Amino acid sequence: MTVNDVYNWLDSFAPFDTQEDYDNAGLIVGHPDGQVSHILFTLDVTPAAVQEAAAIGAELIVAHHPLMFHPMQALLYDRGEGEVLKALAVSGISLIAAHTNLDQCPGGIADSLADALQLPGLQPSPASPYLRSGSLSSPVKAGDFLSFASQALHYPVRLHGSPDRILRSIALAPGAAGEDAAHVTADAFITGEIKHHELLAAAQRGLTVFEAGHYPTEFPGIAALHSRFNRDASGSGWAVNATLFSQSPEVTTA
Q1: What is the value of pTM for the model shown?
Q2: DSSP helix/strand/coil, 112
Q3: What's the pLDDT tens digit per position in 117-164?
């Protein structure tokens, strides 16, 4: 299997041409013809992730968050992305990022968060490709859902609103998707990060908000991608191993 084969596999269900104009998804480091026998799946391309990839002999990293997301005017090897890019080049490891294309595709980051929270009835919203919404199978108190979500995501989710409010419908958008609160017509909204002014506007509309952390709301998507690759590799006879790397930079609960 080659790097380009993995790229085409991703493109078949999370087309790279659906990424936002500001994004940098795709093959970022490496050669499309490079041979791949082991892939590391990770949310972020950190020095620790590259070290793990090198240690297990992975020739390719598939990440959610791209490197060089913003233009770079200097490549300094002792800090930031320069350190990571140097480590990739020295180790001969390629990098593919599936970012906003994976956020919005069926079975991608948003749908995987819904699965992690046991919300199978949520549907894509016409207001935003990253938003899922729908009715709950039965009404639930916001405080009870807070406890469940914190356990399901292994993270101390924050509730903005009354814990006694009865929720009958809910919406979600993973990561830094607080701006999508403006499109929510459900009783509650789950996201990773929300800005102060977005939260104030949500409160004025009577919207209950669960702030669940960027990493915890997106990691279920990369875990699902890893599982999908293993299923497809087994069904297609691809002789490629896949490892899931988890190292959240955020404080988590036990």
Answers
A1: 0.94
A2: helix
A3: 999 999 999 999 999 999 999 999 999 999 999 999 999 999 999 999
